[in-house]
Structure formats: structure tokens, C-alpha cells
Amino acid sequence: SSPASAHSKQASSSKMVDKKSRSKEVVTREYTINLHKRLHGITFKKRAPRAVKEIKQFAAKMMKTPDVRLDVKLNKAVWRKGVRNVPMRLRIQISRRRNDDEDAKEELYSFVTVSDDQSGKLTTVVDEAQALHLVIHHSGYTQKKK
């Protein structure tokens, strides 16, 4: 065993500690979940309930917490068009939070809510001057110079 291999073993063990602690920290992330591929071939009357289960399963996998709680708004977004017409994709926000209950089995839980912006990565910041220019340009209105 050379000193170089001993060093690499030490480095890998510290990485493992980092990974463990990373899954323990409180964090909020946004994801786009593709419900279409998860519900393909599911009976119509079971689609919305299955979508809720799939979202819970997705959140548990991403946040590494078995305890997943869903927001009422998310449930309404899934059921908005009925039991069979579930949205193809949903932009969701998952928060890993501390469990404050004394008798809780898990120290962390995940809270899933529907994200405010459903446009995904296409979000851009537009200032007022730029917005006014776009409105004038797209409406066909141009001011004549005197």
C-alpha cells in the first residue's frame, strides 16, 4: 500500500461524509415532472390518483426522504381537468424541511407544492422599458415624427 492509495481512500471517505450531510440539509428545489410518461397506459379512472402517488414517489427519490407531504394547491392542479385528463407535465417545488414533532420517526420531510411559474427554464426578467417597446412593436403602433 503506497501513500498515494492511502490518500485516495481518505479522500473518498470524506466525500461519503459530505454526501450524507448533503442529504440532511434543508433545501428547496424546482423540478419539472413528466406525468405523461408515468401515466401511460393507466386506466382513465385511476390516472389522477396514480399521478399523486407518482409525485410522492418522485419527491421521495429526489430528496431522499420517505415522508412526503403534498400541498392542497398541487392536488388541485393535478385534479383540475378531472380524473382522466391529468396535465402532461407539472413544474413543482420540493422543500426538504425539519420535522419539529417530538415523536417523529424521520427527522426530515419533503413538502411538495406547485411552482408559480409553469414556463420552466424559459423564465426571463423583462424591465419596464423593454416591455413597453415590445407592446408598441407587436401592436403595430408607431409614433410619427413631426
What can you tell me about this protein's structure?
It is built from 5 helices and 4 strands; from the N terminus they run H-E-H-H-E-H-E-E-H. It has 146 residues and is an alpha+beta fold. The chain has a domain at 26-117: Ribosomal Protein L31e, Chain: W (Roll). Strands 1-3-4-2 form a 4-stranded mixed sheet. The chain is elongated, with a radius of gyration of 23 Å. Residues 122-126 have low confidence and may be disordered.
Task: List the keywords.
alpha+beta, Ribosomal Protein L31e, Chain: W, 146 residues, Ribosomal_eL31, elongated, four-stranded mixed beta sheet
Q: Tally of extended strands?
A: 4
Give the name of the CATH architecture of the domain at 26-117: Roll
Q: Could you name the CATH class of the domain at 26-117? A: Alpha Beta
Instruction: Name the average pLDDT.
Output: 81
Residue fraction in strands: 15-25%
The CATH topology of the domain at 26-117 is Ribosomal Protein L31e, Chain: W
Major sheet description: 4 strands, mixed
CATH superfamily of the domain at 26-117, called what? Ribosomal protein L31
Look at the helices and sheets and give the structural class.
alpha+beta
Straight-line N-to-C gap: 87 Å
Measured as a percent range, the helix fraction is 40-55%
The order of strands across the largest sheet is: 1-3-4-2
**Tally of helical segments:** 5
N-to-C series of helices and strands? HEHHEHEEH
Low-confidence stretches are: 122-126
What Rg is obtained from the alpha carbons, in whole angstroms? 23 Å
